[in-house]
């Protein structure tokens, strides 16, 4: 570990993404209302010293919390998915080592705070999400999670992509001009190729994916999120951020937004530190239950059935015993309910693009959890309500 910064490099392969780790002291177990891990995904070409300032701020807020800082490399947007994912393998291995990629029960379930900066940070997070999804990872029961989007997301148009890359360039005038010319050429041909192939940009795809409740093993419809942005941002338009926040609300996520009005791209923490970190604290309080909020793992209740009225015009499917659930839970969040379940055949209901069913209802006060592998006699979804009955 570098004693001057408190961070040590995580990379154990020759990759261009820089990853730094700050581990809390072994004797300093985080309190129940503190994250056990903060994952910071920096903006594209962000200097690591700048990202460590965010880590330092988190160290002030949560001194017992471990941190991982990921710095996207300059060419990330032009790499194939496999090459991008290889740069993040050390992070996945670390998550596995500390027990975040196992469905095993923990005495103190993990609490994960994810901080994403700009589209570059979103792409890094999405690459990790894709790797975990292919491995069909299950999170430990009771895991808490919250998402922070700083200056993100927005569709990567040619104009805004060039502005973002130019803003990250450092050096003299000649170096900036040469770098800017190269960036323009690369982006131009990338966008031309995607337009001819009628393929959406990477960020456009990930903007849709991050609104999937099962985007990460630790997220569900009850996972709170916050968008930190500014009207003055010339790289990521505020209209795009507000539009994505509105989409997330329609899906059913608990969403907060803070418009800093005058700060530049990824400069909100620098210009308004008290307001910025106050918003972060409030979000995390919601995630750990001060204002409600549960990742969907569910609290156990000594009841044999749960009934929840739902607001849905969808047809009323029924799961028969032959389609026994792998897992299911009903947990309260806000003034509603979330039902989450996985089925062995991987089918989904109500159009959610994952092996997860989530239904929000207007009632509250009851939680029901069905253990992994536990059979149920039926799960019925009707316009009047939801009924889960044990064998």
UniProtKB/TrEMBL annotation:
<dbReference type="Pfam" id="PF05705">
    <property type="entry name" value="DUF829"/>
</dbReference>
<keyword id="KW-0472">Membrane</keyword>
<keyword id="KW-0812">Transmembrane</keyword>
<dbReference type="InterPro" id="IPR029058">
    <property type="entry name" value="AB_hydrolase_fold"/>
</dbReference>
<comment type="similarity">
    <text>Belongs to the TMEM53 family.</text>
</comment>
<keyword id="KW-1133">Transmembrane helix</keyword>
<dbReference type="InterPro" id="IPR008547">
    <property type="entry name" value="DUF829_TMEM53"/>
</dbReference>
<keyword id="KW-0539">Nucleus</keyword>
<feature type="transmembrane region" description="Helical">
    <location>
        <begin position="173"/>
        <end position="197"/>
    </location>
</feature>
<dbReference type="GO" id="GO:0005640">
    <property type="term" value="C:nuclear outer membrane"/>
</dbReference>
<protein>
    <submittedName>
        <fullName>Uncharacterized protein</fullName>
    </submittedName>
</protein>
